[in-house]
Design a protein that fits this description.
Elements lengths: L16 E4 L16 E6 L2 E2 L3 E3 L6 E2 L1 H13 L2 E6 L2 H9 L5 E7 L2 H4 L2 E3 L4 E10 L15 E5 L3 H8 L3 E5 L2 H9 L6 E4 H11 L4 E18 L3 H16 L2 H10 L10
Parallel strand pairs: 2-6, 2-7, 10-11
Antiparallel strand pairs: 1-6, 3-4, 4-5, 7-13, 8-13, 9-12, 9-13
Length: about 260
């Protein structure tokens, strides 16, 4: 199952249970340390969403901070179980953990198998160009342009369908290099990927020139029989959205709020 439209794949499997008892990669202490444990399945190798800080080796990232904030609202400690993407849903079904927190895109197929919280991330497709290029304001402007894309990604097909000539690359780093060298005119990707790159590098030589019509929503996934827990997550997420916590976490990692609009 492809969990994201921008093709960041994890090749590592980190198995094991991390008891989160404080710090960036841990849940809150809640009502005094005796609260029920919330078991969370995640990759731990998918930056900037769920990964280990190089200096501390603590589990951190956007998804980790959001689920920790939810756990604080629910008064529960968090235990993380790290596994490869392909194993996460099997672990959920086997009841090794209660929820998957790993940028799970909500699809009709998945809704038939799992319960979901309300989205905590909304991502859209964007077109990135050099900062001094004002020739692209939408997909209609891609005709005859050169686009750097991972050959097997859906963005390569979007670029081709829009009339662009695709230059195959291995990932965003190579795409940005070709773009900055003037060897291509643009690259299409998920806005979270581009925003994180701009935020982490401070690179002002490229920009987001336009958005596409495609968007996806990411949410926490639960077993169907745990719809009550999903509802508790929804209540906590609503509070975190209302008090500005979701926006703060989002802006920390991406430079803007990608947590989605307020429901209703």
């Amino acid at each position: 199952m492809g969990r994201r439209i921008f093709g960041i794949a994890s090749a590592l499997t980190l198995a094991g249970l991390l008891a989160a008892c404080g710090g960036t990669g841990a849940g809150g202490d809640g009502a005094g340390g005796s609260e029920e444990v919330l078991r969370v399945g995640t990759e731990g190798t998918y930056a900037p969403f769920t990964f280990h800080d190089e200096s501390t080796n603590e589990l951190t990232g956007y998804d980790v901070e959001v689920v920790n904030a939810v756990a604080d609202k629910l008064g529960r400690k968090v235990e993380y179980s790290e596994n490869a993407w392909d194993s996460l849903f099997a672990g959920l079904e086997a009841k090794r953990y209660d929820v998957v927190a790993n940028q799970v895109s909500v699809t009709e197929e998945r809704k038939g198998k799992y319960a979901f919280s309300e989205p905590y991330t909304v991502s859209t497709g964007v077109i990135a160009t050099r900062a001094d290029d004002d020739s692209v304001s939408g997909l209609a402007d891609l005709q005859g342009k050169r686009a750097a894309q991972s050959a097997t990604s859906n963005w390569a097909q979007v670029a081709k369908d829009a009339g662009a000539e695709v230059e195959a690359v291995e990932g965003l780093t190579q795409a940005v290099t070709l773009l900055k060298q003037g060897r291509v005119d643009l690259t299409l990707n998920d806005n979270l990927t581009i925003l994180e790159y701009l935020k982490s590098t401070g690179d002002d030589s490229i920009k987001i020139a336009a958005e596409t019509d495609e968007s996806t929503e990411q949410a926490f996934a639960f077993r169907k029989e745990d719809a009550e827990l999903a509802a508790e997550f929804d209540e906590a997420l609503a509070e975190l959205r209302a008090d500005g916590t979701l926006a703060k976490i989002s802006e920390k990692w991406f430079g803007e709020d990608v947590s989605g609009p307020v429901a209703g």
